[in-house]
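User: For documentation purposes, I need each entry recorded in a consistent format: the amino acid sequence on its own, followed directly by the corresponding structure tokens. There are two entries in this batch. Please keep commentary to a minimum and don't merge the entries.

Assistant: Recorded as requested. Entry 1:
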Amino acid sequence: MAGKKCCRLSALQMVLIVLLVIVTAVCVALAAVLIKKKQKIFKFSFPSETNPQGTPYLIGVGRADCTGPPAEIPLMGYANSQQKAAGIHTRLYSRAFIIDDGSQRVVFVTVDVGMISQRLRLEVLKALKEKYGDLYRHDNVVLSGTHTHCGPAGYFQYTLFMLAGNGYIKASIEPLVSGIVKSIDIAHSKMKPGRIYRNKGEIYDSSLNRSPHSYLNNPEKERSRYKANTDKQVLVLKFTDLDGDGIGMISWFAVHAVSMNYTNRMVSSDNMGYASYLLESDKNPGELPGQGGFVAGFSSSNLGDVSPNTRGPYCVNTGLPCDYLNSSCPIGGTKMCQSFGPGADMFDSTQIIGHNIYMKAKELYANAVDEVTGPVRFAHQWVNMTDVTVKINDTHTVSTCKPAMGHSFAAGTIDGGGDLNFTQGAVEGDPFWDGIRDALLGPPSNETQKCHHPKPILISTGEMNWPLPWHPQIVDVQIIVIGSVAVLAVPGEMTEASSRSCQRGDTFKNTEVVIAGLSNIYTHYITTYEEYQVQRYEGASTIYGPHTLTAYLHKFRELAKAIVQDRVSELPVGPEPPFFTNVFSLMGTAAADGKPENTSFGEVLEQVLPLYRQGDVVSVTFVAGNPRHSGDIRDKTFVTVEIYDNRTETWEVVYNDASWETRFHWLKGSNRESNATVEWHIPQSAPTGFYRIRHFGHYKELQGLKPIITPYEGSSDVFTVTSNYYYSDN
């Protein structure tokens, strides 16, 4: 009996246990639903809050050619009127990254261009609106320029920039808009579940501060927090699919893309572009540049006072050090004070700096294990930067100014000095130049002079509106957050000390804050208040006055707080920027092409040699047309280097004009005649065999008054590449 009772009790217990399990499961399920709903409602509330570990994002990456006309158009960056495009060193690309957490998505685009202009951004957003409706907008799309100084100008709508770049040039801006949109299209079409990992390290041999005197004017207490006067950190985001296969990478590092100096005449993506070229070559084996699924974006950061010319400045005419305070030479002034290095020439320096950045990013990418998880968030405002007032304590407020450029702006920097007798560090005006300014442009108002003190104003751009405003008033401020990474889209060149103020804020806890420079609109430089007092080039180019940084900090903190507190929808949108319809162009139409008598376009003028070794340079010159006549050159090439495949008896393209190893020089001569010289710098790894070099182009002729564009091509003789001159193994 006792045994039977025990068995009956055990059965009852089992029933109760089963019921308990069922009730518990139901409760857990209900709790999970409630928690999930709560997380959805308050997903922005805590910056450290993350999605459940292992929840993937939707990720898309894309790359597209955005190279513009490589002839006659000014290159944007050095403001050197003589520096006009005359060929291609490397092509320019737009690289897009889309991240979606299932509820929100952001787009980050890094473009091989000097900077993003307001006009370029507005035209890109207009094209995205037409194609995608409200999916990609001003608040969730960030466009950032790598800051190469060797891309075509002509994509601005404010007078000062248009004067520097021969106006608004449709042939320049259209490839940029189309290339950026295409890179987003590709990323959009390839979106799939994936993961993001972050890693960071430091590079110590690829940058120096080009205005150390300004930097030293910052408080010693502030400077003592850091080991160096430039930011050595590299941040890498690694993108993989769910199988762990890499699909892309973004890297941020602070250095000017000015290894290619102002004497260069070829379109070039400079050191950042070379780093992308190397990593994409690694990850897309056997593919030509710009092809293959892996996308490596090397983006600009807080590079305002950071130079890649690591041998530093000296007087090129004497070899002696430049004056420390104003970076000038006793004979020749600022033009003779130049910085170089680390290589023997600008190509060598570009290669060394780019390789250093690539190697560190490659290492960080390979070892990235810190997974980024959490919601995607963003906030954006348009701000009238000429009228921002910030309360700094109970009794004092500070304000921004109408834009103005100081005298030291005209002095340039050690990366490219000005031609006139201006020097950096000028805190007093010059009667001669002020008199010319007053006669031609008018003097600055007393109000503007007082607001910008101690800057001696050379051009009061904020008070000049003919034929269009000379500088922007309405500026984008924007933050995108991807889990534990916050990207501040800074609309200019922020100095190292300025960026520290942004990155040290405690609004985003447990979050990596990165500066994405040259983003969305260009407003020159952003220095600290103390650096501004010194009035070197960077301070003279801080256009909204000494409290520019304070205003930006205030605005970025407002955005950050709105994200953290889930109040983004309450932020005022701000005044929308103008889209001018009366932009002007100073570029004439390219003339019809001429050619020497008894020749044809594409014909070889200077032939290759029959035999070369690895490490040699092959050169061949063709009768050429003006490259402007080739129109939209995206996804095309002016050059191929081809190897003969004995097995298939066909020619295979192994390099083109996007390759680091080739250089396409266009030389305009007299009588409308021009020629193209193609160089191939044979790498040591090149296979021995038979090769040829081909050139493609278009020429224009007039039939009556009607212009006719005709394609042409030419080919060198076949030549042999061998390991030595004494024995050919072919």
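Entry 2:
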Amino acid sequence: MKVCVLVLGLALVLTVCVARSPYQAVLQHSRIRGRQQGPNVCAMQQLKGTNKKYFTNCKQWYHRKVCGKPTVITYECCPGYEKIPGERGCPAALPLVNIYNTLGVVGASTTQMYSERAKLKDEIEGPGSFTFFAPSNEAWAALPTEILDALVSNVNIELLNALHYHMVNRRLTSEELRHGSSFTSMYQDFHVHIHHYSNGIVTVNCARLIKPDQHATNGIVHVVDRVITAISNNVNTFIEIDEDLETLRTAMAAAGMAAMLENEGQYTIFAPTNEAFEKIPPETLNRILGDPVALRDLLNYHILKHIQCAESIVSGTPMETLQGTVLEVGCDGDQMTLNGKAIITKKDQLGTNGVIHYINELLIPDSAKVLLELAEGSSVSTATKLFVEAGLTPHLTGSEALTMLAPLNDAFLPSGLAIQELENRGNLDMSPEMRQLMTNHILKEQLSSSSLYHGQELETLGGLRLRVFVYRNNVCIENACIAAHDKKGRYATMFTVDKVLTPPTGTVMDVLKAHDRFSLLVGAIQTAGMTELLNQQGALTFFAPTNDAFSAMSQPELNKLMRNRQQLEAVLRYHLGVGILVSGGVSSHTRVQPLQGEKLELGVRNYTVYVNKVPVADADLMATNGVVHAVNSIIRPLPPKVDREQADGPAAPLRSASSSVADSKSFRNDDLFQKVVRSRSSRTMNKSQ
């Protein structure tokens, strides 16, 4: 029975927690953080150098920052409580008084004074059940002088109307101030608009409630951080009447979006001013204005699907736009930011169906850009300049369906340092080979990386066909692996890749013959009768021993190996993996099945690929039937009880001196390696019988 009661009690607690509003959750967190100071104490975070305070949530508490600025922790009585001299914390509940007297207690004495001047005192002292969104003293002081003078000079009408607009003729606690709700005010039935955000901030007409739930005998007071004004126009009307938004108005009409902004909704519009449009190159702006699809995407990129008041932002948050992608909406001190830039010049112009924030820079989404615009200002600037130098600008600015493979700037270093330096000086000698290479970095169709599949072939503008390799950790096109999310433009897409593409130039045998460092290996392949294997169609990964690998052997050992064709073939086949594995496809504990013997174990450490603990000296020499990775040591099977976690790095700690000496004499003394050789020899003998 006790268990049942406990379970029911726990369920009730969980239900209460789930039903709690975001503000109440944050308030509870502040109470928990302040409880060491005594009962009913709340921890607050105050922005250094300002009077702005916030009930603290868990994230803010540990970061000690609001809008990127440092905070100090202060401790105050939680709403509804007060201190008693000589006692810890805030043990006493505030005595309930009427709204007029409550205004004086909660830091809204200026509102109290204006209420008396406007003959509102009797009303808020008398019977009733009111909600008063009372501007703080600082809120009144922040009003422009001419507005405040106009209100005070006509206290019987203007000031009274203004105060009545801050009132609702019913009691509304923070729990009842639900997100997106609106309530009829006591001024000509104009509505006040409530937004209750997931971070615990509550706003009325975008003014933040800084002291909610101050109870009174005849209602409740919520202290707010600004004086609010009546709202009668929708957001489209704002755009229609403001000359500063003339270009935006024209663009909205051309895109047929004006009617949408007249409908009911909860929009946030980051409205580009005329100045913002003037900053865009005329050819870019004219292209977008003349393209209904791009124009609609551009405008929708400036509109959020919900109302986001400036005071609700305490840190950067990605928010979805009508265009379908996200904007990083954040703040830096008092400034609201977009994608990290403080470009908002006027905040919180509230309409009946949304809010407008004015911005002085135009936001152009990727979906409205051509290839050249996608690449500009990104981490592929070197490749972009090379594309231009190669005479590919018409493709980068046109309406062809293309995909550009754009190597990161780091892909040109250190081997391409000289190219980059020349290019930076503006005198890059664009050779026919370089022009052809850049042409082969552009594919003839617009692709999405998510639609690529293993074995797919893609045609380049230069006429080559490139292969797609899909690995567990990467998607690669030849040796170049996709290093960032796609940038999908109006007509074309940009893939950012980690390497400069090296298209295949021949078979594996052709690749080996083209490099002098493989001359001994080429001779060994011919001796072993494997030339045809490396020339025929297929998919091989060759960990190719260089001349240095053979030179590390003693001359007698090398001579003996070269005279034993079966043993030589077994050794070479152990270096040949089934399938094509480029370096970008190697992750921890990657295994490759060789043509003969046990699996090869690969890994990566400090950007170097290791195969059975042997470092790859030069990776990704692409061939039409495979890939070649140069190694400067003969690869041996790993010992039976090796710690596999060390397979992706340097050799394990040295064993006894005698065993090390024995290993260093020659690989023919390695038992496992002899098993590979004997296995191959046995199969050959069986075939001959």
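Summary note for entry 2:
Residues 1-19, 420-427, 644-689 have pLDDT under 50 and may be disordered.
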